[in-house]
Structures are given as C-alpha cells and as structure tokens.
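Protein Record: Sequence and Backbone Structure Tokens
======================================================
Tokens: labelled as protein backbone structure tokens, with as many entries as the chain has residues.
Task: work out the structure tokens from the sequence, keeping to the layout shown below.
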Amino acid sequence: MLFVATMNVSLIGQDFDMTKFTYQGLPFYSEKEQIIKKLGTPNKEFLPQYECGFLSTDSQDKVFHSLQYNYALYTGAPGIKYVLEKLSLDNGVTVSYDGHKMSNQTDLDELIEIFGMDTMGSLHDTYTGRYSVRSEKSDAGINFILENGRVVMIEYWSPC
C-alpha cells in the first residue's frame, strides 16, 4: 500500500511580488477586456460564490465574475482588475515570474533559483502538497501546488 502525506506550508516571502507573474503576456492583475482580447471568449463566465476573502461579493460589496479558460481562471469585479486566480500547468502551459518561466517541469532547484532559499528552501525534492507564499506587502499570496517536487498549479490565495 502506498501512502502519500500532503502538507500545507505557509511562508511570507520578503521579496515575493505577485505582480511579477505573467501568463501569455498578461499581467497577474488584468482588465477583463485585456484578458478577452488576449485569450478569446472564455469557456464559461460565472459568478463565484466565495463566502469570504478578497474575491468575495459579500466581503467586498461588489459582484465578482469569473472567466474560465482551459487552464486559467480569472476573477474580478467592476472597478477591480481581474486576478489570475488559478492556473494549471498542464500540456505545456507556462507562467513567468520576473522573466523566469515555470512549467510542470519546474523542480525545487528552479523554484529556489527563482524565489530564493528563504522562500522555498524548506521543501524537499519529492514534496507533494500545497505551499503558500504570502507577500510581505499584502495579506494575499500564491499557493504552489506541487506533485513529486514539481509545480503543477498555482492559485491565488486571500484570507477570510
């Protein structure tokens, strides 16, 4: 029997800046029109039902909308830019952080090279789980979902 333990680790990255992420040339925070112009019509557009957090209609008194594409999910509201809420790094999908490309082949050594030992150094080569990194400048952050030490997805995170 194979038993895989997953952990949820959180760290505040001193130099971690979510605005340095780009996907297909789009900034991490983008206007809805900018996203549609670059990625085309979404597969699905819907109203997310988050109970709390920065993308919650109830918490922010704004109606949030999500744009779902094959690998990406953007969420925003009128007067608030859409955030790259989730990105699956399947089938050759890449995301860049400050000019460094990441894919589902990005391993721990590359993550340490990109984000530094202080941010990523506590992981091991075969880590499987969710690793949260929060910006020092914001309560929000990014969850890196890893399988066997490789990044398979990134997700935006905000506190309730």
Notes: Helices lie at 32-39, 57-60, 108-115, 117-120.
